[in-house]
Amino acid sequence: MQETNNTMVSVKGNKGAAARQNLSAQLLAVFAVAVLAVASIKTFGTGSWHAKAVMEDQQRQTPSKTEAGAKAANVADIVVATEADKDIQQKNVIQIIFGNLDGVEGHEGEVVVKLRPDWAPLGVARIKELTASSFWDGCRAFRVLPKFVVQIGINGDPEVQKKWRKNIADDPVKASNTRGTVTFAMAGKGTRTTQIFFNTVDNSRLDKEGFAPFGEVINGMDVIDRIYSGYGEKANQGKIQQKGNEYLEKEFPKMSFIKTARFISSAEAS
């Protein structure tokens, strides 16, 4: 090992000169390769591939005229929606017309619900959105348990129902579930969507379970009492979600339902 190292380090006579010439040639070759590489990189950087990459990056960052127009339209829509929201925010009374009362076609009645944002602001906001979009029209009272609740709130059109899947956050319980109050149904914390129930008796025991009333019936509890209860809770909620009123009308023809639900003024309610 030592002998080999000495041979590698020692350079004498003609052999040394030859070695030096060989080393110089190698250095020149390396330098030439480096120059060519730099030139190639510069040329490649200004070539069509590089230009295309820059253009594609700009295209990704710069919206097209169509996209820009769409964004402008969206801004306009937001402004209009904001104005509509302001109008809705001032409305806290809803008139609901129920059909099929007592399970009889043609029997109708009016229920007036006063929303209470001071009780449940998040719940009231969702109810207003649903009402403004006519969500309630055609909804069946699919769960009616005498001396307990009338539950409603799955839209008859599965495609419409899918649009309202997003849960809303919980409100703290500020009012009790007494007769005539209206509350969101839920399956635990943070699960409120569109289903609600009318308390037909004093269900204050539900308060400690987190059920926060968002409104109260100020006219028409006698109508609520006439909502058909013959089916109890036989309707399958999964099938309602999948098939909507097609399933309910066929299997539960006497089921009471909401014909319309609209905002009205406080003066109209009195």
With helices defined by DSSP (H or I, 4 residues minimum), what is the helix count? 10
Structural class: alpha+beta
Helix proportion of residues, in percent? 40-55%
Largest sheet: 8 strands, antiparallel
Q: What low-confidence regions span 5 or more consecutive residues with pLDDT below 50?
A: 1-19, 35-81
Round the Cα radius of gyration to an integer and report it: 37 Å
Largest sheet, spatial ordering of strands: 3-4-6-5-7-2-1-8
- Average pLDDT works out at 79
Instruction: Determine the N-to-C terminus distance.
Output: 110 Å
H/E series: HHHHEEHEEHEEEHHHEH
- Share of residues in strands: 15-25%
What's the count of strands? 8
Please tell me what the overall shape is.
globular
Task: Provide an overview of this structure.
There is one protein chain. The protein has 270 residues and is an alpha+beta fold. The protein has helices at 2-9, 13-45, 48-61, 65-89, 121-132, 158-162, 221-224, 237-243, 245-251, 266-269; strands at 93-99, 109-115, 143-145, 149-152, 181-184, 196-199, 213-219, 257-263. It has an eight-stranded antiparallel sheet with strand order 3-4-6-5-7-2-1-8. The longest helix has 33 residues, at 13-45. The protein is globular and about 40 Å long. The N and C termini lie far apart (110 Å).
List strands and helices in order, with pairings.
Blueprint: H1 2-9, H2 13-45, H3 48-61, H4 65-89, E1 93-99, E2 109-115, H5 121-132, E3 143-145, E4 149-152, H6 158-162, E5 181-184, E6 196-199, E7 213-219, H7 221-224, H8 237-243, H9 245-251, E8 257-263, H10 266-269
Antiparallel strand pairs: 1-2, 1-8, 2-7, 3-4, 4-6, 5-6, 5-7
